[in-house]
Amino acid sequence: MKVKKIVAPTMPEAMSKIRKELGADAVILNSKVIYLGGFLGLFKKKNIEVIAALDPKPQKPIKDKQPFNNNKYQMEKEPYNKEINNNNHVLDEIKGLKKWMEKNAVLTQPSYPEVYQELYDLLIDQEITPDTAKKLINEASKNSDGEVDFSKAKKDLIIEIKKSMKEEDFGGIHYDKKIVHLVGPTGVGKTTTLAKIAANSVLKDNKKVAFITTDTYRIAAIDQLKTYSRILDIPLEIAYTLEDYGKARERFKDYDLILVDTAGRNFRDEKYIKELGKIVDFNEDLDTYLVLSLTTRTSDLEHIFYQFKNVPIKQLIFTKKDETNTYGSILNLCLTNDMGVAYITDGQDVPDDIKETSINKICEMIVGESADE
Question: What would you report as the CA-atom Rg of the chain, rounded to the nearest whole angstrom?
């Protein structure tokens, strides 16, 4: 084997020298950057060092043992033909998949008269699940006999939405329970929502209100609630243990309403719930509201709801209405879990940015028209 080291300013120049000295059959064994020349270690020039080799022994041709029958031609063509066969196989699979998708698209995408199709598309745009959207539109379209204008179709849809939910499951607290817990994941605005409810209870309903916080994991949450406590002149107790919680509850026994800001992680712990159940009666003493953000996807909301399965949730509270234009998750969660909604919040201002809700208001948010008859 003939080995040659070539040094050149660039790789193309090195390759040109290799072809001239070793021929086109030479192979590159190694290449690296080196620096040459200069003065006292300075001003060195960058070069490429390439090690190339050439095997001077030619390969012996393979003799065919069989008479000439075009086998050589077949061997040369086999990889090509194999590649074509593989490509054809892939193309067949793609065509089959396309036909399957087209077939199932016809089966899964409903076809309605124009006005109902427009309403179906509106529900899908609001991220209402396809099954729920189809069910609502199917029922609404039963009311049509002949041609129906868009306004009539929308009213029929609203009627079906109202039928699917119970009016009594909506609206804010009614002070029939002394203690109200707000639970939910971090970052949805539980503490701010608690302050809004407290402010409305004090300023509008003239109720005597107190705060308890069990969210001792976040210093910021305690400081925030302390600030609201001072502004609204509402007493606050911090409960680090269930024993602290019991003492705080006893201290505020003469108050009209005790609002409790909680650490969501506690209420996902079955052991914690059992221990808390020894202090309070979930059915007699308190109501629990699950606070969720409207900016969260429906699938994630369902997962969060399941995490709080150990707690008897009375109603939902949705926050951050001002941060989205999509409200279908409200309907999805209510219908899936047979649950109502107490409040919807749409900003940070206390106490203004919180509203009691109703089926009519939810219909207006989703369909864009009031459900008032």
Answer: 37
